[in-house]
Amino acid sequence: MVKEEWRVHSTMFGSLSFALFPVMIFGIAFMGSFLLPLMRTTLPAGNLTLIVHANYLMLGLMVGGFGLLGNEVMNRRFGQASLLAYSARSLPLSEKFIFLNFVVKDTVYYFFLWVMPFGFGYILASPFTGVPLTGTLLLLLTLTLSFLFGLCGVFFLSAVYARSRPVLWLVLLTGCLGTGGLAAMTGTNPVLFFPPLLLNSAFTWVNFLISSAILALLFGVAIDLFNPESVGSEKMYRDSFTPLMHRFSFLPNPPLAAKDTLDLYRSGSLVGQTIFSFLLPLAVIWFFLSLLGPFFPPHGLLFIFAITTGVIASTMFTWVTMFDTFGPYTCLPVAVSTLIASKLTTFAVLQVIPAIFIMAVAILSGEVAYLIPAVVLGISVSFYAVGIMAWLCGLSPNVLVYDVKVLFVYLILVGIVLAIFTAVAFTNPYFALSSVILVIPTWLLVQKAKVRWDSVDPEGF
Amino acid sequence: MPVVLEATNLTKRYGEVIAVNNVSLAVEKGALFGLLGPNGSGKTTMIKMLTGQTRPSSGSATVLDLDVEQDPIGIRERVGIIPEQETPPSFLTAMEYLKFVAAVRKIPDIEKKADWWFDFLDFADKKNVLCKDLSRGTRQKLMFTQAFIHEPALALIDEPLINFDPIMQDVVKDYLAGYVKKGRTIFISTHILEVAEEICSGFAILHKGTLLHTGPVAELTARGEHLPSFFLSLVRKDRRV
User: Fold this and answer.
1) Which of A79, A238, A324 sits opposite B128 (nearest CB)?
2) What is the pLDDT at residue A5?
3) In this predicted complex, what is the ipTM?
4) Which residues pair with B61 in a beta bridge?
């Protein structure tokens, strides 16, 4: 299974590019460690630990979610594809045994891909940064546990969901009320009840055993409840395509836009992605950015948040491309450039979500006066970032995550613009309106993307 | 008869691998032409090049007088295609998919035409089912429908009978035979030799990307030979070389 996972990634992103990925994580951690003394002057060490653990928890959630959707994603990406995890019918092995191995594989594989390179970079830098070796080893342990909590949490919740939705809601409600109640009784920030964080702040073998026991319980229940596929269900719908296409008649490619919208809605991606890939990360970011409020110029926090929202909103391009390859279009008179244009159109429609979100944040933070500049800045950044994404990755923007060369170019091109417009908005909030100028490079990038991706054989069929 | 499809020294390389090597062939209007070959012989790559899905490494080809490199979209506008293993989009129903195809191809009266096909291929009860929930056979029926619903002058089909039960295979074979009688052309790729012998008027044999033979089926029949034995002797001889 580990070999299979490696081949999936290296097929999608290229062997060398993918092999360099852990090296890049190591480099970032190693060099980032030297910034720790600087960071500590502005950010308490506890908050920094919280941010890193939150990232690894999110990583575990994402890896788990991808694992469960793996077969569907592979089929969309490569046409007919299958994974060993779905081979219980053709191998003399039980589904639970295969799932157990799948969980172990994910743990080992992503430990070596993400967790170890980060920890290793931090450990190697420790003689220079003055952080004791025991502290770095403890961080490696607690980051691994954070990742595992995300992984087994998503397996547990999806196993419960597959059996009974009301029970899932009951579990979530109990979890929220329990944590909230405990926080109210003890007056402690509920985030600090997260076992890996508890362990990081004060290591005891008892805490370690409690963390491990919770993980074992979640894994055990998930494996016991695991039900690989629901069989025999045929979903039927009346024609929604035609009315939707008429409603989108003002757009350049109404049939393609209508299809994308139905894909998003019926796959459950629209609601799921909005919550888990947009609102949740932004809520976490808002929480952490608000800690830095005193270090920004007046109104700076709103504009930093608008820019961050713009960057995260640009990933909505992956929502409209992730379950769709060029395969189904090869029998139709549709060029790759037409498909890129249609996906960008659907992306543009989705930008209503970040626009409303930035407006809400501006209103809630009492900065209504800067609502329009903040929205303009956020949406301009989003369109610019998606222009780069389309130029670099065409219809496979997920490549961005693991192809080091592509990611490097993306970070440079986006980073420069972010730095410029952050400075501009900090100088005078209304100057943020000037970000509308980004429409020019965006347009040029999209034109370059169309020419570039029309001239190569489309992938994925 | 005018030629509707012509390949000249068509070659496709994937790195070191030569999938199709210097293939030249021509298909006349009204033919039901079979491209035959064992697995991995280059049949699918040939169809992909002829329909502009992949670019030739060298050589040229024209389909309905359009150059495959210059105007791939123009070709796909005018022909019908069933790609190998391709399935319709997961989250549209069968009827919605045909309406999507009609909107892209600008086909009028789609509802009436679609209903005719649902009845003809016996899957009217599945027209409102999501494509991802359809069986392989029903998906193939849907892909077959999308390729012929605009009545193209030329249809290129990769393994036309795959996933069909014997009854449906019979229906489809009859349909294909009737279609070419109307003066239209069909280009199929298959490794089911008995079917090719039964329905094809012309054929070409591809092995390891190289064209071993091309000619009319009637020529073989006149010599008292059968297509399966001719194919096997040719391919086995080539393997020994």
Assistant:
1) A238
2) 67
3) 0.90
4) B7
Please compute the mean of the pLDDT values over residues B150-170 and round it to a whole number.
92
Q: Tell me the shortest Cα–Cα distance from A234 to chain B, in angstroms.
A: 5
Of A262, A334, A457, the CB nearest to B92: A262
Q: Whole-model pTM?
A: 0.76
Distances (CA, A) of A10 to A18, A25, A400: 6, 17, 13
Closest to A50 in 3D by CA, of A218, A294, A287: A287
User: CB distance A333–B105 less than 8 Å?
Assistant: yes
Sign of CA dihedral A419, A422, A428, A433: positive
The C-alpha angle with vertex B64 and arms to B172 and B31, in degrees rounded to 5, equals 40
| Beta carbons within 10 angstroms of residue A217's beta carbon | 12
DSSP, res A112: I
Interface residue A105 vs chain B (CB under 8 A): no
Question: At the topology level of CATH, where does B37-191 sit?
Answer: Rossmann fold (3.40.50)
Rounded to the nearest 10 degrees, what angle do helices A15-33 and A2-13 cross at?
Answer: 90
pLDDT tens string B47-96 = 999 999 899 999 999 999 999 999 999 999 999 999 877 778 888 999 99
- Please name the amino acid found at residue A5: E
The β-bridge relationship of strands B58-63 and B3-14 is antiparallel
Q: Which of A214, A172, A171, A173 is nearest to A193 (CA)?
A: A214
- C-alpha A62/C-alpha A402 separation (Å) is 14
Domain extent listing, chain B: 37-191, 199-241
Whether residues B76 and A80 touch (CB distance < 8 A) is answered with no
3-state helix, strand, coil in chain A (%, to 5): 80, 0, 20
Q: Collect all residues with Cβ–Cβ distance below 8 Å to B205 and sequence separation of at least 6.
A: B36, B37, B211, B212, B213, B214, B231, B234, B235
3-state helix, strand, coil in chain B (%, to 5): 40, 30, 30
* Coil vs helix vs strand at A459: coil
Q: Report helix, strand or coil for A292.
A: coil
Region of B85 on the Ramachandran plot (φ > 0 left; ψ -120 to 50 alpha; else beta): left
A411 Cβ contact partners less than 8 Å away, ≥ 6 residues apart: none
Q: Which of B180, B224, B232, B182 is nearest to B202 (CA)?
A: B180
CA–CA distance, A317 with A307 (Å, rounded to integer): 17
Q: Which H helix or E strand runs over B75?
A: helix B72-78
> For residue range A391-442, what is the model confidence (pLDDT) as tens digits?
998 988 876 566 778 888 998 999 999 999 999 999 999 999 999 999 999 9
B86 interfacial to chain A (CB closer than 8 Å): yes
> Per residue in B189-226, pLDDT tens?
988 898 899 999 999 999 999 999 999 999 998 999 99
| Residue A224 touches chain B, beta carbons under 8 Å | no
